[in-house]
Write a structure and sequence with these properties.
This protein is an alpha/beta fold and 117 residues long. 40% of the residues lie in helices and 10% in strands. The protein contains five helices and three strands. Strands 1-2-3 form a three-stranded parallel sheet.
């Protein structure tokens, strides 16, 4: 059974994409080991309501229904498992990191570059 997310004092703090969470919840391998490290409180997992909503949508897809049945688990149970593991945070607003990008960049053909014939 999953442990609670804890107080977040683990030395490693991560945000994991939905594909990795799905893999960790449904299969063995490195993503599953990552979730085990969260359960053992060696890693603190952070998420947001947007990522949880995306996880719910992905787990409801038909392509995962056979895997859920073979694992004898429902999407709701996996969401509950994830909710116990992750600390929900409100992501900070991040402004644009690159400004003033030209709308058209003219590139020279490789054969016209210096040293090329």
């Amino acid at each position: 059974m999953p442990r609670a997310a804890g107080d977040g004092n683990a030395s490693v703090r991560v945000v994991v994409d939905t594909n990795t969470i799905v893999s960790g919840l449904l299969w063995s391998g490195p993503p599953h080991q990552l979730l085990n490290a969260v359960r053992e409180r060696r890693i603190t997992l952070y998420s947001s309501t947007a990522l949880v909503a995306e996880l719910a949508e992905v787990l409801a897809r038909e392509r995962f229904s056979r895997r859920l049945r073979s694992a004898n688990v429902s999407a709701i149970e996996l969401l509950a498992d994830f909710a116990q593991l992750a600390r929900l945070v409100i992501p900070a607003e991040i402004g644009p990191t690159v400004t003033g990008i030209p709308t058209m960049i003219k590139c020279s053909p490789a054969h016209s570059l210096p040293g090329r014939r």
